[in-house]
């Protein structure tokens, strides 16, 4: 997770002092928000007994994974210490799985 940098309100330019947060859920997986969202989207149809909702989830899952790969590529380009963070936290969504 990126710690938000300050912006100059007059020019709207962002400061270049971004750093990766590696505590809390970010110490376990690189994308905890995506993991929680996918867990919610997959469990909700089961909890409601709407098996057709799993069809929607089957469409959303690969699209979310594609978005995750693009997001990682962008963050690697913008944040200098992301490569170190990615080595330290090896799992993207599921601990000990992926």
Could you explain how this protein is built, in words?
With 98 residues, the protein is mostly helical. It is 52% helix and 0% strand. It has three helices and no strands. It has helices spanning 32-48, 52-78, 82-88. Helix 1 (32-48) runs antiparallel to helix 2. The protein is elongated. The model has no long low-confidence stretch (mean pLDDT 80).
Topology:
Elements lengths: L31 H17 L3 H27 L3 H7 L10
Features of this protein?
98 residues; mainly alpha; single chain
**Helix share bin:** 40-55%
Straight-line N-to-C gap: 18 Å
Question: Which blocks of ≥5 consecutive residues have pLDDT under 50?
Answer: none
Strand fraction equals: under 5%
Radius of gyration: 17 Å
Question: Care to count the β-strands?
Answer: 0
Please count the helical segments: 3
Helices and strands, in order, run as: HHH
Overall geometric form: elongated
Structural class: mainly alpha
Sheet having the most strands: none
Mean pLDDT: 80
Question: In a few lines, what is going on in this structure?
Answer:
With 98 residues, the chain is mostly helical.
């Amino acid at each position: 997770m990126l710690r938000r940098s300050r912006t100059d309100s007059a020019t709207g330019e962002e400061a270049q002092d971004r750093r990766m947060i590696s505590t809390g859920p970010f110490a376990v997986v690189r994308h905890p928000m995506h993991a929680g969202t996918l867990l919610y989207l997959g469990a909700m149809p089961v909890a409601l007994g709407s098996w057709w909702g799993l069809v929607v989830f089957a469409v959303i899952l690969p699209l979310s994974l594609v978005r995750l790969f693009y997001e990682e590529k962008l963050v690697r380009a913008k944040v200098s210490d992301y490569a170190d963070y990615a080595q330290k936290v090896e799992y993207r969504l599921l601990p000990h799985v992926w």
